[in-house]
Amino acid sequence: MPSVKAGAPGPLTAGSPVRLQFAQKAFIEAHGRLLLVRKSADDPFHPGRWEVPGGRLEVEDDLDLDDHVRREVWEEVGLKIDPGPPFHLWQWFMPDRGARARNARIRVVATARRCRPLSLDADLGNQEPGDHLAECAWVPLAEVAGYALIPSLRPVMRAYLSRSG
Asked: Which intervals hold domain Nudix hydrolase (predicted)?
């Protein structure tokens, strides 16, 4: 691969504009079960797939990273949590449908965090319309690998389960 001069567009940005966003995912475990959420049939990216609660940082509104992950979990599944340390960092790309430029993309850099639940009655009553969630479930750790996870979450889930066993 040819080298890139400092300040010049690299191979990922030369062809189309890329916006950067940050996300956090909460791995909430209680009594040997992990909380998963299933995307609704109208989700534009992963209909019917499973993941863990979390979402992208709202730069203007989230006071700090703990506040951010607490807000996301509360909005998506109605739980209060105690955010723990990050255990995995990864990224994915998605189309930037709000951009004017054709083929514009968003690079999402994400961290996974172990979080302790302060309540256990999860429900979807607080979710935002853009969350596209159909259900949530406390899944036994031994069964999580059998769920149809969103593709970018699979290696993160393997990392989580390898440390939980």
From this structure: 17-161
Spatial distance between the Cα atoms of 43 and 129, rounded to a whole number of angstroms: 10
Render the burial of 93-130: b for 16+ CB within 10 Å, e for the rest: eeebeeeeeeeebbbbebbbbbbebeeeebebeebeee
CB 81 within 8 A of CB 70: yes
- Nearest partner of 52 among 92, 31, 23, judged by Cα: 23
132 close to 44: Cβ distance less than 8 angstroms: yes
Predicted confidence (pLDDT) per residue in 142-163, tens digit: 999 999 999 999 999 999 999 8
Element (H, E) at 154: helix 154-164
All domains of the chain in start order, with CATH: 18-164 (3.90.79.10)
Q: What is the pLDDT of residues 40-66, one digit of tens each?
A: 999 998 999 999 999 999 988 888 999
- 8 Å CB contact between 72 and 26: yes
**Alpha carbon distance 118, 93 (integer Å):** 33
| Residue at 126: amino acid letter | N
- Tell me what the pLDDT averaged over the chain comes to: 90
Question: Does the pTM exceed 0.70?
Answer: yes
